[in-house]
Amino acid sequence: MLEQRNPQLNRNGELIHLLSIDGLPREVLVQILDTAGTFLSVNDREVKKVPLLRGKSIFNLFFENSTRTRTTFEIAAKRLSADVINLDIARSSTAKGESLLDTIANLSAMHADMFIVRHGESGAPYLVARHCAPHVHVINAGDGRHAHPTQGLLDMYTIRHFKRDFTNLTVAIVGDIVHSRVARSDIHALTTLGVAEIRGVGPKTLVPGDLREMGVRVCHDMTEGIRGADVIIMLRLQNERMSGAMLPSAGEFFKSYGLTPEKLALAHPDAIVMHPGPINRGVEIHSDVADGKQSVILPQVTFGIAVRMAVMSNIAGISA
Ligand code: CP
Fold it and tell me: Is residue 1 scored above 80 in pLDDT?
C-alpha cells in the first residue's frame, strides 16, 4: 500500500507548506512558537526588519474578508524583508471568471515564492499547493470552516506566554464551534501540546457531532463549561456560514452563552479571555469583559505578527 505523505512536510519532516495543524508534529509546532519568541523583539526595534526573506515575493491572496490576518501577514513579510504583493481580489480577473488555478499559474509566472491563501471553500489552499511548482510554498490563512493554522499557532503562543505550561490547563472554547475553523485548529494544537482538558461550550445546533471524538468535553450549559477554566476562547456567530436559523436570536444567545463579568467570575481567578476577532460586543462578549483586565484579545493580534514571521521563515529552504 502507498504511504500517505503529509503534503505540508518534505521527506525530511520539514515544513514546506502550512495547511493545517492537524498532523503537524509537536516538534514543528514548538519550533514555530520558539522562533516567534525570538522575533517578538524585532517589533520593538527602531528598524523593524531582519533580512531572512530578502528578495522573495510573497503574494497575499484573500478571497474572503480579513482585517487581522491579511494585515499581520503583510507586516510579518515586510519585517522579514520580503516583497509583498496584495492582490485586490474584488478588482482582479477573478471577477471576470478566471479560475483559482489559472490565477495561481499567472502569479507563479511572475516568480512568486509564497502564496498566503484565504478562501471561503474548505480545501482551496490544498488545491493551490498541489498545483504549485516545488519551490513555491503555500500558507493557509483560513479556508471555509476547515482550518486557520496561523490563528491556532498565535493562540498557542498567547496561552504559553500567559500560562507557561499547557499540561495543567483547562481550556473552554465557547460559541459557534460548528462553523469555526479557529476552533478546529485550536483543538488540534491544544491536543498536540498536551492540554489537560478541552471543553466545547455552546448550544446543540452550534456544537459539531464529532467534537467528543476529538477528545473534547462537550457542555451545553455555560456555567458548567467555564467553571474553573484557565483559558476561555470566545467565538463569534459566523452568520456568513449559517444556512437557515440555528438560533432563536442574538439576544437569546447572549443570555445563555455571552461572556459577562458575572459568568467570567466562575472561571479561575487568573483566567485569560481570548477571541480571534472580529468581536461582536453584546452578542458573544460583554464590553466590560472584552476591554477588561483578563482580556488578552489585543496581545493575540500583536503576537500574530511574530508567529507569522516564524511560520514564513521556518519553511524549509526559504530563508536566505
Ligand atoms: N482572526 C481572524 O482571522 O481575523 P480576520 O478575519 O480579521 O483576519
Answer: no
What number does the ligand 1 atom closest to the CA of 70 have?
8
Dig out the grid coordinates for 66 from the structure.
480579513
Distance 235 CA to ligand 1 centre (A): 12
Question: What value does the mean pLDDT take over residues 301-312?
Answer: 98
Q: What is the spatial distance between Cα 302 and Cα 212, in angstroms, rounded to a whole number? A: 32
Does the reported pTM lie above 0.90? yes
> With 60 as the cut, is the pLDDT of residue 315 above it?
yes
pLDDT recorded at residue 246? 73
Q: Convert the pLDDT of each residue in 264-276 to its tens digit.
A: 999 999 999 999 9
Name the 3-class secondary structure at 189.
helix
CA pair distance 80, 53, nearest whole angstrom: 5
The residue whose CA is least distant from atom 6 of ligand 1 is: 66
Q: Which of 63, 66, 118, 238 to mutate to test the pocket of ligand 1 (most atoms within 8 A of CB)?
A: 66
Alpha carbon distances (Å) from 283 to 64, 176, 258, 260: 22, 11, 6, 10
Ligand 1 centre from 158 Cα, in Å? 16
Mean pLDDT of 69-89: 97
What is the b/e burial string over 43-70, where b = at least 16 CB atoms within 10 angstroms of the residue's CB?
A: eeeeeeebebbeebbbbbbbbbebeebb
Q: How far is the CA of 233 from the centre of ligand 1 (A)?
A: 14
Rounded to an integer, the average pLDDT of 89-95 is 94
Residue nearest to atom 5 of ligand 1 (CA): 66
Pocket lining for ligand 1, CB < 6 angstroms: 66-69, 142, 148, 151, 276-278
Q: β-pairing, 137-143 with 170-174?
A: unpaired
